[in-house]
Design a protein that fits this description.
The longest helix has 10 residues, at 3-12. The chain starts with a helix and ends in a 6-residue tail after the last strand. It has 183 residues and is of the alpha/beta class. The protein has a single domain (3-177), classed as Vaccinia Virus protein VP39 (Rossmann fold, 3-Layer(aba) Sandwich). The protein has helices spanning 3-12, 21-27, 44-51, 63-72, 109-115, 144-148, and strands spanning 34-38, 55-60, 77-80, 95-101, 116-127, 153-161, 170-177. Helix 1 (3-12) packs parallel to helix 4 (63-72).
Length: 183
Amino acid sequence: MDLRGWDERYRNHPGDTCVTPLLASSACNLAPGRALDLACGAGRNALWLASRGWRVTAVDGSSAAIDILTTRNPAIDARVADLEKRQYVIEPDSWDLIAMCYYLQRDLFEPAKRGVIPGGIVLAIVHIPEPGEALTPFRLAPGELARYFDDFEILHHHEGPSHDPAHQRWVAEIVARRPLSQR
C-alpha cells in the first residue's frame, strides 16, 4: 500500500490505542529514557511509552497517522517521514529503545542496531508465512529475523502465532540488547 492508501486508511479508522503486548512486557522493567517508534502508525506504542515517562520520537510516512498521534499527545515528537526513502536518519548511539512493530524494512535493522546506546534495546515484530504459505516481500523467512541480531543479546525470540489481539497473522518477534562493549 502506498502512503496515500495509508492516509486514507487512518482517516477512516484512526487505529487502536492498546499497546503492543510485547512492547509493554519488555519496556515495563526498563528505566524510561529516549525511545524511537519507527512506522508508529497512529501511535499506540508511542502513547503508552510517553505515559510512562519515556521521551518519545515517533516516525511514520502517513501524515494522517501523525495528525492523529499529535492530537492524542502533542508532547510526543511525531514526524512524517517516508522510511523507505530514508527521510528519517537514525542517529547512532542515541536511543535507549527502538521499536519497529509490524513493519518490515530489512535495511532498517542495522541503523536501528547502531542507533541504540550500549545496553539499549531493539524490539522488532514482523510477519512471517504460516506453514504452507509462500514468502512475500512483506514477510521474513522463518529464522531470518534472529540472524539480523546475532551480535546482540537476545532477550526474547518467538516465531509463530501472534500474541497481539490486533494482529492475527504469524510473526517473528525479537527483543535484543546491544552489548555494553560493542562500538
